[in-house]
Amino acid sequence: MYVGEVAPTTLRGAMGTLHQLAIVMGILISQIAGLDFLLGNHELWHILLGLTAVPAVLQSLLLFFCPESPRYLYIRLDEEAKAKISLKRLRGSDDVTKDIIEMRKEKEEASSEKKVSIIQLFTSSSYRQPILVALMLHMVQQFSGINAIFYYSTSIFQMAGISQPVYATIGVGAVNTVFTAVSVFLVEKAGRRSLFLIGMSGMFFCAIFMSVGLVLLNKLAWMSYVSMSAIFLFVSFFEIGPGPIPWFMVAEFFSQGPRPAALAIAAFTNWTCNFIIAMCFQYIADFCGPYVFFLFAGVVLAFTLFTFFKVPETKGKSFEEIAAEFRKKSGSTQAPKAAVEMEFLGATETV
C-alpha cells in the first residue's frame, strides 16, 4: 500500500513488481548463504539464523528516513502543506501541482465512500464477487505448488537423481530472480489477466512434465533432465504472472473505501495458504510419491479455468468499468452504489 501511494502513477506497476523482485532476491541470497561451505553447517548455522535480524534492524532504522505517504497526509489527515513537502522529497522537484490535483480528486471521490470492514466485503453484494475472486487469486499463488518447490527443491532434485541438488536449487532461485525482473517490464505492456493466464497455462504443462519425469525416472535416466527443466520453466511461468499480479489486481478491484480491508484479508489468505503448504507438502509427497505434481497440475488447471471465466481484465479500466465486468461475469445487472473512477491508480495510463 505504501509503495502504491508514493510511486508516480506511470511507475506503479513496475515499482509494485519490484516488491516481488526484492522477495526473490532475498530467497536467492538465503540459498547461497545456506551452502554448507558458507554458513549452512553445524558450526555456523546459528549465525545464519541470527543474520535475519540484520535486514529487520536496517529496515526499522531506514523507515525513519522514509517520508509519510502524501495521500495519507492529504486525504486522511487533511494536511496539504505536509503532503506537498512529502511529495517534493519523493519527486525530487518543487512542482507537484499535478500530484496535488490528482489527490484532490481522489479525496473528493473518497468522501463519498465510507470505510468498509472485512465483514462488509462478504455481506455486501457490491463487494462479494470481487473479494472472492481476489482471495482465489491469492490461494492459487500458493496452492499452485511454487512454494513446495522452494521449500523442498533440494529433496525434489534428489528424487530426480541430480548429483548436486543444492546447486540446482540455487539455479531455481536465479531463474526466479531473472524472470521476476522480466515481469517488471511485461506488466507495463500486457494485461494482468492475459499474463496470469499465460503463466498458469505454462505452469500446468510444466507440472505434468515434472511428474512424468519423476514417474519414469527409474526406467529412463534422462528423465531427470526433463524434471529439472520442468522445474525451471515452472518457476519462470510463475514469475511471469501468478507471482506479482494478484497483489495488483486486488488493489484494482476496489475503490478507496474497501481497498485497505480487501488488501488485509488477501494478505492473510496468502500467508495462511503458504503456511498450509509448508506444513503439509512433505506428508503429501510421502503419500503420493512421484505423482505429487499431478495433484498440483489439477489444482492449477482448475484455477486457470476459474480465471478464464471469472476474472476480468483491469488494465486501463476505471472502477466503474471493472465493477461492470464483475456484474457481467456473475450474470447480474444491478449497478454498484458508488462508481468511483480509479485515475489515482493510473487507470488512464499503463500501470
UniProtKB/TrEMBL annotation:
Catalytic activity: D-fructose(out) = D-fructose(in)
GO function terms (MF aspect): D-glucose transmembrane transporter activity; fructose transmembrane transporter activity
Record flagged with keyword Transmembrane: yes
Any one Pfam family match given in the protein's UniProt record, by short name: Sugar_tr
UniProt keyword list: Cell membrane, Membrane, Sugar transport, Transmembrane, Transmembrane helix, Transport
SUPFAM superfamilies: MFS general substrate transporter (SSF103473)
Coiled-coil ranges per UniProt: none
UniProt membrane topology term: Multi-pass membrane protein
Ribonucleoprotein among keywords: no
Membrane-spanning segments: 21-39, 45-66, 131-154, 166-187, 194-216, 261-285, 291-309
GO BP, sorted A to Z: D-glucose import; dehydroascorbic acid transport; fructose import across plasma membrane
Localization terms from the record: Apical cell membrane; Cell membrane, Sarcolemma
Major facilitator superfamily (MFS) profile domain: residues covered: 1-315
GO cellular component: apical plasma membrane; brush border; sarcolemma
InterPro entries tied to this protein: GLUT, MFS_dom, MFS_sugar_transport-like, MFS_trans_sf, Sugar/inositol_transpt, Sugar_transporter_CS
PANTHER family according to UniProt: SOLUTE CARRIER FAMILY 2 (PTHR23503), SOLUTE CARRIER FAMILY 2, FACILITATED GLUCOSE TRANSPORTER MEMBER 2 (PTHR23503:SF27)
Stated family: Belongs to the major facilitator superfamily. Sugar transporter (TC 2.A.1.1) family. Glucose transporter subfamily.
Name of this chain's protein: Solute carrier family 2, facilitated glucose transporter member 5
Species of origin: Camelus ferus
